[in-house]
Each structure stands twice: as C-alpha cells, then as structure tokens.
Fold each of these.
Amino acid sequence: MTILVTGGAGFIGANFIIDWLQTRDEGVVNLDKLTYAGNLRNLASVEGHESYTFIRGDIGDSVLVPDLLVEHKPRAVINFAAESHVDRSIHCADDFIGTNVVGVYRLLDNVLRYWSELPEAEQAGFRFLHVSTDEVYGALEPGAPAFTEDNSYKPNNPYSASKAASDHLVRAFHHTYGLPALTSNCSNNYGPFQFPEKLVPLFIHNALAQKPLPLYGDGRQVRDWLYVRDHCAALRQVLETGEVGEVYNIGGNNEKTNLEIATMLCEILDEIRPGNGGESYKSLVSFVKDRPGHDRRYAMDSSKIRRELGWKASETVESGIRKTVLWYLENQDWVAATVGGGYRDWIRKQYR
Ligand code: NAD
Ligand code: DAU
C-alpha cells in the first residue's frame, strides 16, 4: 500500500512524511516541484528509506501525474503542494493562481480519472485529503467566537483567495463526481524545517544574527499557533477515520499576538543562548509598516475533530516554541544552506 503526498519537500509535508515513515508500515511517494520553498534537505533522514520515493514534478502536469498514479497505485493522495506565503502573494499572485487554483484543479481531474478506473472495493477505500488553511474564513473581531466549519468563506489576501478557490474545487469534485475527498483547514504552524520567511523562523534567524525583528503594524495581530507535528497527527487521523465529503478545522487553541510570540522567542533565546551584546534579544524588536490588508485575528474551533475523531493538540505554544528554538539552534547548517541568494533577494525586497 502506498500514499501519494504532494508538496512533501516543504515544511509541513516533510514533517508529515518523516512522521509517516516512523509510525506507519506503508510507502510514500512524494511529488514536489521543488520551488524556492521545497528543500530535499528536509527529507535527508528518509532518503534511501525503502518505502520512500521522490518524484520531482508539478501537480498541474497532466502527463506526469496520470503516469505516476498508474505506476504507484496510491490508495490516498494528500495535497500539501501550494504557494504558501501571504507576503509573496501580495507582491505577485501569479504562482498562487497557477498552483493553488489551476494546479489543484488539474490534480483533482487526474486523480478523478484514476479513481474512476479503480475496482469498486479500492474506489470505496480511496481518499483525497486537501490540506488548507484557516485564512479562508477571513478575519475575526476581538472576542468573536473562533471559526467553525460552518463559517462562510471571506478570504482577504491573494493567498487565502487562491486556497479558498482550491477548497471549493475539492468540494465540487466530491459533490459532482463523488470523488472521496476531505478538506482540513488549519491554523498557523511552526516547528522544524519551516522556511525562514515566516514569522517564527525569521525571528529566530534574525535574532541570532543580531538583526531587527520586524513586527508588522502594532504587532497585536492574533494567530492560533499549532506545533507542526500535532498538525501531522491530525491529518493522519482525518485520513484514517474522517468522513468523506467533510471539512475538519484544526487549531492549537493557542491564541497569541505576534508581539507575544516575539517576546517568547527572545526570552527563550536569552535563557539558552544569551548573546545580543549582553542585552535582551527583545531590544531587536522593531515595528515596521503593516502588511496590506493584514487580518487582525484568526482562531480555530477544533471541537469537531476532537469530538468526532478524537484528536487534540499535544503541545502548548510554550512547549512547542521552546522545541522549535532548540531545533533551529541545533540545525544551523540547515539554516545556512537555506538562506542563500534567492532568500536574501526576498528579504531585501520585503523589508527594504
Ligand atoms: P511550503 O511553502 O513550506 O511548502 C510547499 C511545498 O509545495 C514546497 O515543497 C514546494 O516545492 C511545493 N510546491 C509548490 N508548488 C508546487 C507544484 N505546482 N507542484 C508540486 N509541488 C509544489 O508550505 P507549508 O507551510 O508546508 O504548507 C503546506 C500546505 O499547508 C499548503 O497547502 C498550505 O496552504 C497549508 N497550510 C499551511 C500552514 C502553515 O502555517 N504553514 C497552515 C495551514 C495550512
Ligand atoms: O493561518 C494559517 C497560515 O499561516 C497559512 O495558511 C500560511 O501558509 C502561513 O504562511 C501562515 O500565514 P501567516 O501570514 O499568518 O504567517 P506569517 O508567518 O507570514 O505571519 C504570521 C504573523 O506575523 C502575521 O500576522 C504577520 C506577522 N509577521 C510576519 C512576518 C513574516 C510580522 O509581523 N513580521 C514578519 O516579518
């Protein structure tokens, strides 16, 4: 038995594959285009594993995808592949539409053809799990109840609009053609192998280099933080016992402002790697121009997945952030190999 993971060389996909191979006796085929965010170093620990196969390619490639489906005969597809960074989507959304909308449509179309030709028993057991985001629901007012699966879609930036489009396509392929699809919408992840363009790894990286920690606007925007391995555990649960056609919200129940996250990161670094010339790393925090259209607050109500599938997060934000800081400190060679020319160009463009 095999599953097909798309986008498995990225942050969450790589954590998912590593965990999968540690906890399951089932093969994984990883289809990844290796964009700037895809990094085979994330998967160095499973390279050569007898149950792991890597294929470089695009989810929107309608020659490659049908061929690999027929060759590897996966019993499930888990779609992580996406352009994922909001700030990049604000600079230019072309790749977001190309992968998150057109790519997902082509992937669905090719998976549908493959699924339609499976024997009946295999059709019944097949799953297409689409990994999506809380951002599709838009922004919450302070004090408003957390997003449930019944909230309407109100995406506010090009990234979240492109993910919302993909969620609608998944829903339509299930409703119209009966493709056994499920969707998960998750809050902000952090943990090992996250590309240092996102808040947590960017701030750890900058702090260690004694560079400013650029907080957008007043730094009071709220996110619901989830340790990546908790997300991976939730996805395995959805794949195994989730109901076809359903949507599951996944969150950490850990609402924090960006300023609180920055402070937490600095305090952990002050404790385990003091070094900012004798000053706290907090002195590096610097308030910069806000992100256009910046969503003020996200929060996920995960009661459905807890009640129906028995999943809940195991890390608190304090324990997970500490583990993450330690991982980055112990993996500075990974960071050094990740922050090359393309990364520096992005940082210059975004924070000039
Ligand atoms: P990431 O940017 O780290 O990785 C994306 C991966 O997809 C990369 O390996 C990239 O090479 C690959 N990819 C991009 N376009 C592709 C294409 N056309 N064909 C094949 N591969 C392609 O992203 P991530 O943070 O790991 O997020 C994974 C998924 O989870 C995304 O769908 C994202 O929307 C969703 N998500 C992320 C978070 C988060 O906090 N990071 C939270 C909720 C949901
Ligand atoms: O909510 C889920 C989403 O979380 C995922 O769908 C996205 O793929 C993922 O990138 C993430 O989106 P965010 O925009 O919330 O993540 P990011 O790390 O870019 O930003 C987190 C918060 O920190 C956000 O309010 C913006 C702020 N921020 C971010 C950066 C990079 C700063 O203040 N300064 C920064 O330099």
Amino acid sequence: MPALFSVEVLTPEKVLYSSDRVVSLTAPAWEGRLGVMAKHRPLVCALRTGVLSLRLDDGETRYIAIAGGFLEVSHNKAVILCDAAEMDREIDVDRARRALERANERLRTFDRSIDRQRARAAKDRALARLKAGGAL
Ligand code: ATP
C-alpha cells in the first residue's frame, strides 16, 4: 500500500479538485517537471501553464490543465492555486482547438498591433488543454 497525501486545486471561483488519496503528483515547474509524493519536504514553487498529473491510489490518473499558478506543499498536503484550471473530463477540446488556431494565426502575422506575448500565452493554454483533454 503506497503512502498517500492530499491535493487541492483551487481557482478564484472554486475548489476544482480535492482528494486525500493521491500517490504522486507531477507539475509543470519553471525548471522542469516537479514530482511530489507523500511526506515531501515543505515547498512553494511557481508553475508554468501546462498539465498537472495526479496518480490516485485506485490506479487512475487525472490530468488537469492549469494556466500557471503556485504549488505549496506542507504537512502532507499539496495546494495548487491557479487563475484558470480545468479537469480532463470537462475540457472542451473543440474550443481549445479553435483557441490554438486563433493564437497561431496571430503569431503568423507581423502586424504590430498583435501582442505576441499574449498570443503565445493563449497558445500555451490551448496546448495544455488539448494535452490534458487527451487530444494531443
Ligand atoms: P478561449 O479563447 O477559448 O476563451 P482562453 O484561453 O482565452 O480561451 P481563459 O481566459 O484562459 O480562456 O479562460 C476563461 C474561462 O474559460 C476559464 O474559466 C477557463 O477554465 C475556461 N476555459 C477556457 N478554455 C476552455 C476549454 N477548452 N474547456 C473548458 N473550459 C475552458
């Protein structure tokens, strides 16, 4: 029986996900993917836009698209705070595909009115949603 820990994923609107039966978590940290297991040392770390993976004790893995945020680990509990996050099952894949196309279109043009950083961030969110939604 593997040691377990708790995870909460919070957005400004709601508790998106909460479980106390998590075996391991991997998160998109700035330095690369960060792994957390039970009894991890206390930690605070900034996250990129990407996919958070949670392996549960029933053998299932849940994927959550996150639009950046922060991870805090303490007392055998991980809290992920993000502006926007979606569970694998609730991701609208067609919407993410459209968002990706829009962002790519903006990045293809040399129009000075295009905010490239904003378009790149939108593209990263769309890619994270497609990955978490199983479409990439
Ligand atoms: P879009 O251009 O499709 O609106 P976006 O990246 O601009 O995408 P956000 O501003 O990051 O969208 O998110 C706005 C809200 O919509 C958030 O609550 C987010 O969780 C939700 N959301 C965005 N895209 C999707 C999607 N493909 N499936 C489900 N929820 C989504």
Amino acid sequence: MEATLDRPDFFVGGDWRTPAGDEVTEILEAATGKPLGTAALAASTDVDAGVAAAHDALRGPWGRTTGAERAEVIRRFGAALKARGRETAQLVSRENGMPRAMSVGANGFAPAIMFDYYAGLAAGLDADDVRHGPLARTRVRREPAGVVAAITPWNYPQALAAMKLAPALAAGCTVVLKPSPETALDAYAFADAAAEAGLPPGVLNVLPGGREAGSYLVEHPGVDKVAFTGSTAAGRAIGEVCGRLLRPVTLELGGKSAALVAEDADLDVFLAALPEVSLANNGQTCHASTRILAPRSRYAEIVDAVTDTVKSLRVGDPLERTTQIGPLVSAAQRERVLAHVDAGRRSGARLTAGGSIPADRPEGWFVEPTVFADVENTSPIAREEIFGPVLVVTPYSDEDEAVALANDSEYGLGGTVWTADQERGEALAARIETGTVGVNHYALDVLGPFGGVKASGLGRELGPEGLAPYVALKSVYLPPEAR
Ligand code: NAD
C-alpha cells in the first residue's frame, strides 16, 4: 500500500508534470512516526508552469463559459471527490492524526457539499443585471477575478482547499493550489477528481510545496488573487506583499477563542459538546474554544467537571472508530505544544489533567489532553494559540468581566456561550468581538460566512459572501433609453 502513496509528479495543465527540482518530502504517519509516502515539492520553475497553465486556461474556453456551464463541471468534480471521500478521509487521518470519525465528514464529504453549493450559485452570475439610474443604464457584469493562488494548511486540508476551490471555479477563475507539505498526499484527491470529472486542463493545478514556494506564488506576476489559510505570522507576511502589489487577498488565520460559561449554564450540555467545540482534531483547530471562562460562583464545580471530561477522553489510533483524541501532525508540532505546556507549568497555573506524552503511546506524536486551571488571562498559555489538546480555565466575577476577558485577545475567530437562556446567550454573543460565535453549539455550515476579525484574518469564506472575492465586478455604462 505504501508504494501507492508516493506522488512524484505535479498536476499542471491537466497533466502530470515531472518536477524541475529534486526536493521531496517524506510524510510520516502521525500515529506511528513510520513512513507513509513521499511527495515532490515545487521549485519556482514548477510554480511558473502552474501559473502559466492557469493563465492559459483562463484565456481559453473556460474563461468564456457561462456560470450554468461551470455548474455542471463543478457538480461532476464534487461527485468525483465524494466517490473517493472515505479513502481521502482515511489518508488525512494518517497524515495529520485527525480522528477518522471526524475526518470522514470534514475531509471526506464536506468538499462535495461545498462544490454542490457553489455550483448552485454559479448560474446566478449569468443573470442580466441592468440598472436604470438617473444618468445612465449600467450593466453589471460578474467576471472571474482571474488566476487564484490558494495556499492551505495541514489541519483540515480538504475542507480548507474546497472552501477556496469551489467558489473560485464557480466564478470562472482558475487555480494554483499549494497545499502544505505535511498533507501533500491527500491534496492529490483534487487532481485525481479533476482529471476524472473532465475539468479543462489548467483550470486546477496542484503543486505541493513549502514556505518558499508559497511566497514565490503569492508574489507571482501571473496571480490575480490570493486565498490563504494558515498562521497569523504567515498571514501578516502575505498581507504585506499583497498590500504592496495591491493584490486582493483573503486571510483565514489563527485563533484563541473563549467558551463563556454563564452562571446558569447547563453543564451537561457544555461538557457533551466540549470535545468537539474545544478539542476537535486533537486541538489542531483554528476556531476551538480553548479558553474556558468560568463564573467564580461555580468555579470549582466547572474545573472539576472539565477535568473529569478531558481525562475520560479516549486517546488512540485515529483510525479506530472510538478514538476521540489522536496524535498531532508532526514531531515538531508535538514539541511546540509540549513547550507551551511547560510554560504553563512555570506560570503558576494549576495542571489538573494531562501534561505529558501518554505512557502507552511513545510512538507517533501524541500529547495527553491537558487542562490548566487558575490561568490569568495575561499568561502566555491564555494568549498564544497552542494548536494542541490544551485548555485553560480562567475565573470571572460578573458578566461584564466575562465579556471583557473573552475580548481581551489578539484574536477573534470563534467562541461559544453556554447558558440555559438562549436569548440571553445571543445577547452575550453579540458583545463578543469575533467573526463567528456559537450559543450552546458551534459548527461551521456551508451557508454561514466564516472568518475572523483582528489578528484572525481578513475576509470571509463560505456562504454567498465566500463567492464575492472571486468575482470581479465590471460596470458597463450604456446610453439612457430613449423616452
Ligand atoms: P502555516 O502558516 O505555517 O502554513 C500554512 C500554509 O502556508 C502552508 O501551505 C505553508 O507552506 C504556507 N506558507 C507558510 N508561510 C508562507 C509564506 N510566507 N508565504 C506563502 N505561503 C506560506 O500554518 P500551519 O502550521 O500549516 O497551520 C496552522 C495554522 O493555520 C494555525 O495558526 C491555525 O490557526 C491556522 N488555521 C486557520 C484557519 C482559519 O480558517 N482561520 C483554519 C485552519 C488553520
């Protein structure tokens, strides 16, 4: 099986391209640390070829398609992704440690849902939109934004790529997808499905590569729009370049979101949701509610309950159906997370669960799900994105302080409010400075715009709003109609 996981070529211009260089990445299975496969990494010449192919496709018949024509192709593409969904989901779990039960939804089937949704919106772009104003008639045309550079991280590699590909193709753009080296293998599901669905050559090009290839792509003169998901540090660097170039960019970045547990919260509801809301994908989730804000009146009860819940989570092989916490993506990520845990220990916070590598999981990149209580909101473990299974609990005295603590963060991506009073919960949610927030629930949906404020990013993906960045508006002024 291992041999079939090697991907030595890139997908460029509808064909398999032999890499210009010889840089290859070896992907190790997250649960065992053993080799899973290899993938070629793009050099600048490969990126040039990808952008040129995307450019040619845009100038070719694809650039003249109607939205309705594209909708058909996008639906076929989505169906081809869906057909290999279980296989892709399993591959991602092996690459990045995501429990398979979650990966089947997030990586296996979510992309097809997004492809179907944006296929549905594509035909709407064809509508003749003529506006009769006081000075002229204006025909508003919705044209493709052009060649899109889509750069994605390793944590939800299929869903995050689909959030860009589906609206980009619906709008008539062409795409160069640069996935992370850590999840280079699963990215080929897009190439395989595109070939099978008959996507015209060059409309999608897949070139795994590292940071250098990414930054070369962002600056490339042939790129018209950048869509990035990843760390805030990389997002800032990309934003600076795009600012200089005046190149449109969407940035989906890091987070450090709060779970505000109100005094009247039903703890059973909160605890049942906790693994998914705060520790999804082993904590490797940008919108996770990892800062738990607990009222002083119920503080000990909440710390004990969160600790017991986290200690009860089943840590293990991500491919096992019952596993709730799998390994982290890499040895380097495990080191980073353990360094945060050490910083937490030194900060004087009280470790109530986890804190180490599980004794029965020395292989692979496991970290015990961990809880720190009595954490000051000024402490680095309350401020920095850890991106592992580490929660902090901070007490508050009243609602205003809870809201202030939730908002006292560089980030603003997710967040949740837990209360027996749904209406009061929505009022609290309205006071939280964030791009998304859940009340007694948190789940992304294809219809809901997703994205951050502050250092969590710029722009939105999903929903009709997620299509707009890929559409270039052109106003064609026409003479007023004869009266
Ligand atoms: P990362 O920023 O290191 O890398 C992300 C991608 O960008 C990779 O493909 C990488 O090769 C590329 N890259 C890195 N530096 C670049 C540069 N200067 N120019 C161009 N490309 C560059 O992030 P990661 O470690 O892969 O992913 C984890 C981060 O992603 C976390 O901070 C997480 O919060 C964030 N994330 C955000 C969202 C969101 O929607 N807001 C979703 C998932 C992950």
Amino acid sequence: MDYKDLYKLSKEAREFSYSPFSGFSVGAALLCTDGSVFTGCNIENSSFSLTNCAERTAFFKAVSEGKRNFKAIAISGGKDSADAPCFPCGACLQVMSEFCRKDFKIILSDRIVTLAELIPYSFKL
Ligand code: THU
C-alpha cells in the first residue's frame, strides 16, 4: 500500500463522518506494519466533549483487534471537500505516541511529516 492509496482510503472514510455540529468532516486510514489498514472518521456528540476524532477512531479500531505496530496514518478533512492539510489534534498525537515510534509517518494532503515533528517529547517507544 503506497501513501497515495492510503490517502485515498482516508478520503473514503471521511464520507462516513458524523459531524453535524462542526460541519468539519475528517477521515483517517491507518497502515499497520503487517500491511493491514484500519479506517476511521470523526464522530461528534451533542455533549461536544465526547467527540472522537477520525485518527483515534482508526487507532482504537486497530488496537482493539490486536494490532500494535503502525507505519503511517493518512488524514483528510475540512469544512468542504477542498484538500487543505488537516493536522491531528493534541489528544490524537498523544494516543499515537503511545503506540508509535518517532518516525511514524503522518500523510497529509500536501506533505508528509513524522510524529516526532508534531509531538517531540512524549514517547514510550
Ligand atoms: N477532528 C478530527 O477528527 N481530526 C483532526 O485531525 C482534527 C479535528 C474533528 C473533531 C471535530 O469533530 C471536528 O473535526 C472539528 O474539530
């Protein structure tokens, strides 16, 4: 699976976004080191604070099915279908740093960054 295809899968996952409160739909596609892929979308809630981001949906799906080794995540999102880069929030970066190494790749619409570039200090691995 190349990163272009992974990004495409994130766009497909975005179609499932439940985001009536923000109108900001997000999709994520998480690539495991064994080649399997788990997708996720953001799922909002009227309480607001219970909203789950697309990235954490993908991670929690994967970890709950026994996966713990990850290579990359592609993320697409925004208010409309435009391809502006959608950076993961602090909560999602914290979850990523629990399971991923510093060179874990984050695939955005126009760039690829590493996890350590976005959250330099909080690593277990
Ligand atoms: N959101 C994500 O799902 N991932 C991101 O990387 C940025 C933010 C969601 C949370 C909320 O449902 C909406 O986008 C607006 O913040």
